[in-house]
Amino acid sequence: MKRLSFLTLLYILLSLNLQAQVGEFRRDLAIGINGGYALNQVSFSPHVNQKMHGGMTMGITTRYTCEKYFSMICAIQGELNYAQLGWTEDITTSTDTYKRDVNYLQIPIMVNLGFGKEKGGVKGYIIAGPHIGFCIGDKEERGGEWSDYTLSLRNRTEQYDKEIEQKFDYGITLGLGMDVSTKSGHHFTLEGRYGLSLSNIFNSTKQDTFSRSANNVITVKVAYLFDILKTRN
Fold first, then answer.
1. Which CATH architecture has domain 25-229?
2. Domain-by-domain residue ranges, the chain?
Protein backbone atom coordinates (compact mmCIF):
# COMPACT_ATOMS: atom_id res chain seq x y z
CA MET A 1 0.00 0.00 0.00
CA LYS A 2 2.81 2.38 0.93
CA ARG A 3 4.64 1.43 -2.26
CA LEU A 4 1.50 2.12 -4.31
CA SER A 5 1.09 5.52 -2.63
CA PHE A 6 4.73 6.35 -3.31
CA LEU A 7 4.39 5.41 -6.98
CA THR A 8 1.20 7.46 -7.26
CA LEU A 9 2.92 10.49 -5.72
CA LEU A 10 5.93 10.02 -8.01
CA TYR A 11 3.64 9.85 -11.05
CA ILE A 12 1.87 13.08 -10.02
CA LEU A 13 5.18 14.90 -9.46
CA LEU A 14 6.54 13.74 -12.84
CA SER A 15 3.33 14.80 -14.58
CA LEU A 16 3.47 18.24 -12.99
CA ASN A 17 7.13 18.58 -13.97
CA LEU A 18 6.45 17.64 -17.59
CA GLN A 19 3.53 20.05 -17.77
CA ALA A 20 5.73 22.80 -16.38
CA GLN A 21 8.23 22.20 -19.18
CA VAL A 22 5.66 22.62 -21.94
CA GLY A 23 5.83 26.09 -23.43
CA GLU A 24 3.08 28.57 -24.11
CA PHE A 25 0.76 27.34 -26.84
CA ARG A 26 0.69 29.21 -30.14
CA ARG A 27 -1.34 28.79 -33.31
CA ASP A 28 -0.03 31.50 -35.62
CA LEU A 29 0.04 31.04 -39.38
CA ALA A 30 1.66 33.56 -41.72
CA ILE A 31 2.05 33.40 -45.51
CA GLY A 32 3.77 35.62 -48.04
CA ILE A 33 6.31 35.98 -50.81
CA ASN A 34 10.10 35.92 -50.88
CA GLY A 35 12.84 36.91 -53.28
CA GLY A 36 16.60 37.15 -53.31
CA TYR A 37 19.92 36.28 -54.88
CA ALA A 38 21.71 32.92 -54.89
CA LEU A 39 25.47 32.40 -55.24
CA ASN A 40 26.27 28.83 -56.24
CA GLN A 41 29.19 26.60 -57.04
CA VAL A 42 29.09 22.95 -58.05
CA SER A 43 31.47 20.79 -56.05
CA PHE A 44 33.08 18.76 -58.83
CA SER A 45 35.42 15.83 -58.31
CA PRO A 46 37.67 15.86 -60.33
CA HIS A 47 37.91 19.61 -59.74
CA VAL A 48 36.65 22.27 -62.16
CA ASN A 49 37.85 25.87 -61.57
CA GLN A 50 34.89 28.17 -60.90
CA LYS A 51 33.77 31.61 -59.88
CA MET A 52 30.59 32.18 -57.90
CA HIS A 53 27.55 31.77 -60.12
CA GLY A 54 24.82 34.32 -59.45
CA GLY A 55 21.12 33.85 -60.04
CA MET A 56 17.76 34.93 -58.73
CA THR A 57 15.43 33.07 -56.42
CA MET A 58 11.78 33.75 -55.58
CA GLY A 59 8.81 31.94 -54.14
CA ILE A 60 6.11 31.51 -51.52
CA THR A 61 6.74 31.22 -47.77
CA THR A 62 4.52 29.81 -45.03
CA ARG A 63 5.36 29.88 -41.33
CA TYR A 64 3.43 28.16 -38.55
CA THR A 65 4.32 29.15 -34.99
CA CYS A 66 3.31 26.45 -32.51
CA GLU A 67 4.93 27.26 -29.17
CA LYS A 68 6.89 29.73 -27.09
CA TYR A 69 9.30 27.81 -24.89
CA PHE A 70 10.74 30.19 -22.29
CA SER A 71 12.14 32.98 -24.56
CA MET A 72 12.37 30.80 -27.69
CA ILE A 73 9.61 31.07 -30.29
CA CYS A 74 9.25 27.76 -32.14
CA ALA A 75 7.90 27.55 -35.70
CA ILE A 76 7.95 25.45 -38.85
CA GLN A 77 8.78 27.28 -42.09
CA GLY A 78 8.05 25.84 -45.53
CA GLU A 79 8.65 27.32 -48.97
CA LEU A 80 8.08 26.68 -52.66
CA ASN A 81 10.85 28.43 -54.58
CA TYR A 82 12.24 28.89 -58.05
CA ALA A 83 16.05 29.07 -57.90
CA GLN A 84 18.59 29.68 -60.64
CA LEU A 85 21.70 27.69 -59.74
CA GLY A 86 24.55 26.31 -61.85
CA TRP A 87 28.20 27.21 -62.26
CA THR A 88 30.48 29.77 -63.91
CA GLU A 89 33.96 28.59 -64.84
CA ASP A 90 37.16 30.48 -64.08
CA ILE A 91 39.13 29.90 -67.30
CA THR A 92 42.67 31.31 -67.11
CA THR A 93 44.26 29.60 -70.13
CA SER A 94 42.37 31.61 -72.78
CA THR A 95 39.70 34.26 -73.28
CA ASP A 96 36.98 31.59 -73.28
CA THR A 97 34.02 31.97 -70.92
CA TYR A 98 31.51 29.36 -69.83
CA LYS A 99 28.35 29.62 -67.75
CA ARG A 100 25.68 27.00 -67.08
CA ASP A 101 22.32 27.98 -65.57
CA VAL A 102 20.51 25.07 -63.90
CA ASN A 103 16.99 25.99 -62.80
CA TYR A 104 15.19 24.30 -59.92
CA LEU A 105 11.89 24.17 -58.15
CA GLN A 106 12.78 23.76 -54.48
CA ILE A 107 10.86 22.86 -51.32
CA PRO A 108 12.71 23.50 -48.05
CA ILE A 109 11.03 22.50 -44.76
CA MET A 110 12.82 24.09 -41.83
CA VAL A 111 12.61 24.59 -38.09
CA ASN A 112 12.49 28.31 -37.26
CA LEU A 113 13.68 29.18 -33.72
CA GLY A 114 13.31 32.86 -32.83
CA PHE A 115 14.36 35.14 -29.99
CA GLY A 116 12.81 38.56 -29.50
CA LYS A 117 9.43 40.17 -29.96
CA GLU A 118 6.67 38.17 -31.60
CA LYS A 119 4.91 41.29 -32.86
CA GLY A 120 5.57 44.99 -32.86
CA GLY A 121 9.34 44.63 -32.79
CA VAL A 122 12.46 42.78 -33.94
CA LYS A 123 13.10 39.06 -33.67
CA GLY A 124 16.24 37.19 -34.62
CA TYR A 125 16.01 33.53 -35.63
CA ILE A 126 17.86 30.50 -36.88
CA ILE A 127 16.55 28.07 -39.49
CA ALA A 128 17.60 24.52 -40.24
CA GLY A 129 16.14 21.60 -42.11
CA PRO A 130 16.06 19.50 -45.28
CA HIS A 131 15.29 20.65 -48.79
CA ILE A 132 14.34 18.87 -51.99
CA GLY A 133 14.36 20.19 -55.53
CA PHE A 134 13.74 19.24 -59.13
CA CYS A 135 15.64 20.53 -62.16
CA ILE A 136 13.22 22.09 -64.65
CA GLY A 137 15.76 23.19 -67.25
CA ASP A 138 19.28 24.39 -67.97
CA LYS A 139 21.13 26.61 -70.43
CA GLU A 140 24.77 26.97 -71.48
CA GLU A 141 26.44 30.27 -72.39
CA ARG A 142 29.85 30.33 -74.09
CA GLY A 143 32.08 33.20 -75.09
CA GLY A 144 35.59 33.93 -76.39
CA GLU A 145 37.37 32.02 -79.12
CA TRP A 146 36.11 28.60 -78.01
CA SER A 147 38.16 26.44 -80.37
CA ASP A 148 39.70 22.98 -80.27
CA TYR A 149 42.97 24.66 -79.31
CA THR A 150 41.57 26.60 -76.34
CA LEU A 151 39.72 23.47 -75.17
CA SER A 152 42.98 21.48 -75.27
CA LEU A 153 44.49 23.94 -72.78
CA ARG A 154 41.98 22.98 -70.08
CA ASN A 155 42.29 19.99 -67.77
CA ARG A 156 38.57 19.13 -67.81
CA THR A 157 36.03 19.42 -70.65
CA GLU A 158 33.61 16.51 -70.10
CA GLN A 159 31.06 18.80 -68.42
CA TYR A 160 30.35 20.71 -71.63
CA ASP A 161 27.14 19.69 -73.43
CA LYS A 162 26.62 17.06 -70.72
CA GLU A 163 22.98 16.47 -69.84
CA ILE A 164 21.84 17.04 -66.25
CA GLU A 165 21.45 13.35 -65.47
CA GLN A 166 20.14 13.58 -61.90
CA LYS A 167 17.11 15.91 -61.93
CA PHE A 168 16.20 15.31 -58.28
CA ASP A 169 18.16 17.27 -55.71
CA TYR A 170 18.14 16.99 -51.92
CA GLY A 171 20.19 18.33 -49.05
CA ILE A 172 20.22 20.46 -45.90
CA THR A 173 19.73 24.18 -45.32
CA LEU A 174 21.04 26.31 -42.44
CA GLY A 175 20.62 30.04 -41.91
CA LEU A 176 20.11 33.14 -39.81
CA GLY A 177 17.39 35.74 -40.14
CA MET A 178 15.76 38.84 -38.74
CA ASP A 179 12.01 39.49 -38.55
CA VAL A 180 10.64 43.01 -38.17
CA SER A 181 6.93 42.78 -37.37
CA THR A 182 4.06 45.17 -36.77
CA LYS A 183 1.36 44.81 -34.13
CA SER A 184 -1.19 44.38 -36.92
CA GLY A 185 0.50 41.15 -38.07
CA HIS A 186 2.81 42.12 -40.94
CA HIS A 187 6.34 40.69 -41.07
CA PHE A 188 9.39 41.81 -43.05
CA THR A 189 12.28 39.36 -42.95
CA LEU A 190 15.92 39.30 -44.06
CA GLU A 191 17.73 35.97 -44.26
CA GLY A 192 21.11 34.57 -45.10
CA ARG A 193 21.32 30.81 -45.61
CA TYR A 194 23.62 28.08 -46.82
CA GLY A 195 22.37 25.06 -48.73
CA LEU A 196 24.44 21.90 -49.16
CA SER A 197 23.23 19.28 -51.63
CA LEU A 198 23.77 15.65 -50.74
CA SER A 199 22.96 14.55 -54.28
CA ASN A 200 24.78 15.02 -57.60
CA ILE A 201 23.72 16.59 -60.89
CA PHE A 202 25.67 13.99 -62.95
CA ASN A 203 25.85 10.22 -62.55
CA SER A 204 28.63 9.16 -60.19
CA THR A 205 29.36 5.47 -60.73
CA LYS A 206 32.92 4.20 -61.20
CA GLN A 207 32.40 4.35 -64.97
CA ASP A 208 31.38 8.04 -64.91
CA THR A 209 33.64 11.07 -65.18
CA PHE A 210 32.64 12.84 -61.97
CA SER A 211 32.41 11.11 -58.61
CA ARG A 212 30.81 14.24 -57.14
CA SER A 213 28.88 17.15 -58.68
CA ALA A 214 26.81 18.74 -55.89
CA ASN A 215 25.36 22.23 -55.49
CA ASN A 216 26.67 24.51 -52.74
CA VAL A 217 24.61 27.70 -52.51
CA ILE A 218 24.67 30.85 -50.39
CA THR A 219 21.39 32.75 -50.54
CA VAL A 220 20.37 36.20 -49.32
CA LYS A 221 16.65 36.85 -49.43
CA VAL A 222 13.90 39.09 -48.13
CA ALA A 223 10.27 38.17 -47.53
CA TYR A 224 6.97 39.79 -46.70
CA LEU A 225 4.52 37.74 -44.61
CA PHE A 226 1.14 38.53 -43.11
CA ASP A 227 -0.76 36.67 -40.41
CA ILE A 228 -3.88 34.80 -41.44
CA LEU A 229 -4.27 32.93 -38.14
CA LYS A 230 -3.43 34.32 -34.69
CA THR A 231 -3.50 32.89 -31.18
CA ARG A 232 -6.07 34.62 -29.04
CA ASN A 233 -4.51 36.19 -25.99
1. Beta Barrel (2.40)
2. 25-229
